[in-house]
Amino acid sequence: MIPDWGILGYRVIMRSSVPVIDLTPWFSGDETARAAVAAQVDQALQSVGFFLVTGHGVPGEQRSQVRQQARAFFESPQLIESRERAGVEAPRFLYLHELEAGTL
Asked: Going by C-beta distance under 8 Å and a sequence separation of 6 or more, which residues neighbour residue 37?
């Protein structure tokens, strides 16, 4: 059996899919719709620990800039050097490739 060592970068085994939550109903102002979105967020955090959102209204250009900055951060020489010094092979931006490919 392969151990699940979590975020230390060794091997992460996904036990379930990442929930995708549409925030559009949250912005509608309807109390029932907002409660439904809140319940989805609560369930996602309790069962998986994180989630992806759609319907947030952030323009594609800004999302691309954030991905570029995240990639630059995780590939920065200082971060790579500190991981090597610590003897830890931390994962790169874990789901970036799947997100960009639309497979997650």
From this structure: 21, 22, 23, 25, 26
Residue-range definition of the domain harbouring residue 62: 58-104
29 and 47 housed in the same domain: yes
Cβ-contact 90, 9 below 8 angstroms:
yes
Same domain, 44 and 86: no
Helix (H) or strand (E) holding 20: strand 20-22
Q: How does pLDDT run across 54-77, given as a tens digit for each residue?
A: 999 999 999 999 989 988 887 788
Q: Model's pTM, two decimal places? A: 0.55
Q: What is the DSSP letter of 21?
A: E
Residues 48 and 65 grouped into a single domain: no
Cα–Cα nearest to 63, from 96, 38, 22, 23 = 96
**Domain shared by 1 and 52, yes or no:** yes
